[in-house]
Specification:
With 362 residues, the protein is an alpha/beta fold. It is built from 13 helices and 14 strands. The chain has 2 domains: 181 residues, Rossmann fold (3-Layer(aba) Sandwich); 128 residues, Rossmann fold (3-Layer(aba) Sandwich). 36% of the residues lie in helices and 16% in strands. Strands 3-2-4-5-7-6-12 form a 7-stranded mixed β-sheet, with helices on both faces. A 5-stranded mixed β-sheet has the order 9-11-10-13-14, with helices on both faces. Its EC number is 1.2.4.1.
Length: 362
């Protein structure tokens, strides 16, 4: 006898089962939207250019070619030459134009094809953009975004593989963000464009094509991630892993491996390099009593070194049961050969080793 509420008992048993399954399927939550980091940034640019007529994008190949990494795909066709501008191969020139436009009241987004090339324009970024608001006693804000791929890619050798998080994080007057996943990329980009200060957005070339689930909240045109606030990606009780950009994924993977061995790791995604959310890190260290920092940049004067100093100077130092351990890129220019390159960038195995050494279990 058919007892399933709402089921037509005249149907065959097989069709009754099908009807029940269809209803259960309709009850379930909609599947999460999968969005690549590239498309998340594209959405943010599109929404902010549409929202504010003062916003425009300029850089090498950003318009007709749709961007060297296709991040600006479709924007030139939608908004035209006045909002999406191709520039000559002259970083100092177009960065200077962008800074001047910001001083004049516009809100430019200046793309560097890679942040390694931003060194051609570092005088504009530091001396012109970062310092003018202070030197003008608050009369001349410079609302500009400098964005592009940062850090090591694959097989592009030393002049295309530096991480500039510590370089630009060193300079007062700048805000520096370093997204990991699609949600980070969209929310931080929108926050950067709306900010009245110069913001450096350090993307990662190897993450552009990686898809992540984008929450319903993040799909909103009003979604913004506050600059200066880290996110705990994984709760844990025994050791804190702090990282940014692509290395966050390595930390989460290492934490999953270590969990099978009974080691419970907390993973913090910095999101912002400057201003740094040291309070979130301190609260985690107070709970776990151990800290490992992970970054793709060089060790000397790096992001991890700054975290070490901040922890030593603050109240969380008294809760540490062992010294802070840093996992970094090797202290050499990036080699071209793949096997050497792999040994110069932090891998999951390096993080696992650092955790076990910190906890004294090896």
């Amino acid at each position: 006898m058919c007892r399933e509420p709402g089921t037509n008992c005249l149907l065959s048993p097989q069709n009754q089962v099908s009807a029940i399954l269809r209803r259960e399927l309709h009850k379930s939550a909609p599947a999460a939207l999968q969005v690549t980091v590239r498309d998340a940034i594209n959405q943010a640019l599109d929404e902010e250019i549409e929202r504010d007529e003062r916003v425009f994008l300029l850089g090498e190949e950003v318009a007709q070619y749709d961007g060297a990494y296709k991040v600006s795909r479709g924007l030139w066709k939608k908004y035209g030459d006045k909002r999406i501008m191709d520039t000559p191969i002259s970083e100092m020139g177009f960065a200077g134009i962008a800074v001047g436009a910001a001083m004049a009241g516009l809100r430019p987004i200046c793309e560097f094809m890679t942040f390694n090339f931003s060194m051609q324009a570092i005088d504009q970024v530091i001396n012109s953009a970062a310092k003018t608001y202070y030197m003008s006693a608050g009369l001349v804000p410079v609302p500009i975004v400098f964005r592009g791929p940062n850090g090591a890619s694959a097989g592009v050798a030393a002049q295309h593989s530096q991480c500039f998080a510590a370089w630009y994080g060193h300079c007062p007057g700048l805000k520096v963000v370093s997204p990991w996943n699609a949600e980070d990329a969209k929310g931080l980009m929108k926050a950067a464009i709306r900010d009245d200060n110069p913001v450096v957005v350090l993307e990662n070339e190897l993450m552009y094509g990686v898809p992540f689930e984008l929450s319903e909240e993040a799909q909103s045109k009003d979604f913004v991630i506050p600059i200066g606030k880290a996110k705990i990606e994984r709760q844990g009780s025994q050791i804190t892993l702090v990282s940014h950009s692509r290395s966050v994924g390595h930390c989460i993977e290492a934490a999953s491996v270590l969990a099978k061995e009974g080691i419970d790791c907390e993973v913090i995604n910095l999101r912002t390099i400057r201003p740094m959310d040291i309070e979130t890190i301190e609260a985690s260290v107070v709970k776990t009593n151990h800290l490992v920092t992970v970054e793709g940049g060089w060790p000397q004067f790096g992001v991890g070194a700054e975290i070490c100093a901040k922890i030593m100077e603050g109240p969380a130092f008294n809760y540490l049961d062992s010294p802070v351990f840093r996992v970094t890129g090797a202290d050499v220019p990036m080699p071209y050969a793949k096997i050497l390159e792999d040994n110069c960038t932090p891998q999951v195995k390096d993080i696992i080793f650092a955790v076990k050494k910190t906890l004294n279990v090896i």
